[in-house]
Extracellular solute-binding protein (Marinovum algicola), 75 residues
Amino acid sequence: MRVVVTGDADAWITWPNWPITKDGLDMVELTEDRVIYRDINVVLSPDADPEAKAFLDFLVTEEAPEIPATEGWQR
């Protein structure tokens, strides 16, 4: 991180939303063999509100990826 802050880095692996939502950053597209995918895990408590279950059900729909895609995320 220090080389990025001091300006001594040419590139940095970061989250996809940073170059989309921050001024002065450019995204460099990588070839498929160099792309790093990160996953997310979600656990629903047995005592969770019904709204939490409904939200998790929504996350696996076809419409759900459209929201994070506005920030550069993809499924």
Summary: Residues 62 and 75 are 10 Å apart (CA to CA).
